[in-house]
C-alpha cells in the first residue's frame, strides 16, 4: 500500500495540479497548486511538499506540505491548469478566466491576465448578460481553450486581450470538460453524454465528429487523452462508469468499466506510464487502475483492505483488424488480457474527492473534507 499523507486546509478543495517539471528534468514533482470552492472566500494556492515523507530518527514523518503563497479568487475554482512553470490558468464559476503569475523570489501570486466575461448566458429568459460558469480549461502554450455552462468554446492566446476564436453555440447543453487531441483539435464532453471533436482549422461552428453513449445520455464530467496514443480517450460521468474510446472507430466507447458508486469527477492517464489510470469520485474514493500486461495472469480483483471483489469489463467493439502490437492495453479485448487491477488509494471513504493529478511517482488529490492527500510512492 502506498504511503499517503493528509493535510487539513480548512477549505473545500475543488482542483489540485502538479507544477510541470522542466523538459528533461530528473527531479520529482515538488510544487502543486490547489483551488477551492464553496467557501466564503476562495483561493488559488501553491504548495511545496519539501522533504515530505522523510523518516526522522524517531520513526515519525517530518515535513508537511508548506503553503508557499495564495491569492483570493472571485467565485468557485471550477478548473485549474498550469500554462507553464510560472503561470496558472484558473476557471471561475463567475465565467471569468484568470492567468496567475507566480513570483518565486518573494513567493507571491499576481493576476497577469484576465478575461472577465469569457462565459455568459444570453437570449430569452436570461438577463442582458448573466455570467455562466467556466467549467473547463486546457492549455497548450501559447493557446488556452475554455468551455462553459453556456455551451461556448473560447480559444485564447496568452498576451492577447481578446479571444482568438469563439464558437458561440458549440453546444446546446453544458460543456463539462475539454482536452486537446492534437494541437488544432480539441475534444469536449457534455451533459448529455456526448463527445465532440472540434478542429480549429475549420471555419464553421460544427464539430468534425460526435461520439456518444447510446441511449443513456448520462452526463459526462471529465475526459483525458492517452499521452502517447492520441486517438484513445477516457471519460467519466454521473453514473461513475469509466468509458474508454477510440475516436478513429465508431461512435461508441470501446470499453465500459463498472467503477464508482457516484459521479466520477476526474480521470487521468499517468503521463509517462499510461497503462496506469486514476479516477476520483463523489463517493469519496480514489482509484488506481493498472492495465499493464506484464503482470502474469493477473486476477481481476479489486484490492481494498484485504477484501476482494470481482471486477467487470464489457468490451463492445471488435479490434481484431488493428495490428496487435499497436493496441493500447486499454483497447485490448483479449479475455486473458481483459484484466485490470484496481487499487483504492485512500485509507477510508471520505466526502467527495473532487480532483487528482499524477506526475512521476507523485499523486495529489483534494476533497470536500477540506483535506489534501499526497503520495510520492505510486509504484513502489
UniProtKB/TrEMBL annotation:
Predominant localisation class: nucleus
- UniProt cross-references to InterPro entries, sorted A to Z: WD40/YVTN_repeat-like_dom_sf (IPR015943), WD40_repeat_CS (IPR019775), WD40_repeat_dom_sf (IPR036322), WD40_rpt (IPR001680)
Query: Gene Ontology terms, cellular component aspect?
Result: cytosol; kinetochore; nuclear pore outer ring; nuclear speck
Q: Write out the entry's keywords from A to Z.
A: Nucleus, Repeat, WD repeat
Task: Name where it's found.
Answer: Nucleus
Q: Which Gene3D superfamilies match?
A: YVTN repeat-like/Quinoprotein amine dehydrogenase (2.130.10.10)
**Spans of the WD repeats?**
213-255, 257-299
Highest taxon of the lineage: Eukaryota
Matching entries from SUPFAM superfamilies are given as: WD40 repeat-like
Keyword Repeat recorded: yes
Q: Which PANTHER family match?
A: NUCLEOPORIN NUP43 (PTHR22652:SF0)
Name this protein carries in UniProt:
Nucleoporin Nup43
Amino acid at each position: 500500500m502506498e504511503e499517503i499523507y493528509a493535510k487539513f486546509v480548512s477549505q473545500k478543495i475543488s482542483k489540485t495540479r502538479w507544477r510541470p517539471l522542466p523538459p528533461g528534468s530528473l527531479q520529482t514533482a515538488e510544487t502543486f497548486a490547489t483551488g477551492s470552492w464553496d467557501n466564503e472566500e476562495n483561493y488559488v494556492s501553491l504548495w511545496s511538499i519539501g522533504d515530505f515523507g522523510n523518516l526522522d530518527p524517531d520513526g515519525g514523518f517530518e515535513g508537511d506540505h508548506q503553503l508557499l503563497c495564495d491569492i483570493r479568487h472571485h467565485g468557485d475554482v471550477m478548473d485549474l491548469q498550469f500554462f507553464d512553470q510560472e503561470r496558472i490558468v484558473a476557471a471561475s464559476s463567475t465565467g471569468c478566466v484568470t492567468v496567475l503569475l507566480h513570483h518565486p523570489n518573494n513567493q507571491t501570486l499576481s493576476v497577469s491576465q484576465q478575461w472577465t466575461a469569457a462565459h455568459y448566458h444570453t437570449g430569452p429568459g436570461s438577463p442582458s448578460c448573466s455570467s455562466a460558469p467556466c467549467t473547463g480549461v486546457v492549455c497548450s502554450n501559447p493557446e488556452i481553450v475554455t468551455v462553459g455552462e453556456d455551451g461556448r468554446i473560447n480559444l485564447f492566446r496568452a498576451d492577447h486581450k481578446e479571444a482568438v476564436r469563439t464558437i458561440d453555440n458549440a453546444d446546446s447543453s453544458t460543456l463539462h470538460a475539454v482536452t486537446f487531441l492534437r494541437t488544432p483539435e480539441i475534444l469536449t464532453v457534455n451533459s448529455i453524454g456526448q463527445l465532440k471533436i472540434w478542429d480549429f482549422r475549420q471555419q464553421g461552428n460544427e464539430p468534425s465528429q460526435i461520439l456518444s453513449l447510446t441511449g443513456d445520455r448520462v452526463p459526462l464530467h471529465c475526459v483525458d487523452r492517452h499521452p502517447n496514443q492520441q486517438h484513445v480517450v477516457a471519460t467519466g460521468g454521473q453514473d461513475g462508469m469509466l468509458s474508454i474510446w477510440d475516436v478513429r472507430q465508431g461512435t461508441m466507447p470501446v470499453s465500459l468499466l463498472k467503477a464508482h458508486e457516484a459521479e466520477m469527477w476526474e480521470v487521468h492517464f499517468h503521463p509517462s506510464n499510461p497503462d496506469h489510470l486514476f479516477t476520483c469520485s463523489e463517493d469519496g474514493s480514489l482509484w488506481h487502475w493498472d492495465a499493464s500486461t506484464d503482470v502474469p495472469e493477473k486476477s481481476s480483483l479489486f484490492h481494498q483492505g484485504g477484501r476482494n471483489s470481482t471486477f467487470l469489463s464489457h468490451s463492445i467493439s471488435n479490434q481484431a483488424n488493428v495490428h496487435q502490437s499497436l493496441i493500447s492495453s486499454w483497447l485490448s479485448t483479449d479475455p486473458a488480457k481483459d484484466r485490470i487491477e484496481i487499487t483504492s488509494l485512500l485509507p477510508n471513504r471520505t466526502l467527495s474527492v473532487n480532483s487528482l493529478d499524477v506526475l512521476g511517482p507523485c499523486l495529489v488529490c483534494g476533497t470536500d473534507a477540506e483535506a489534501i492527500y499526497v503520495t510520492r510512492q505510486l509504484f513502489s
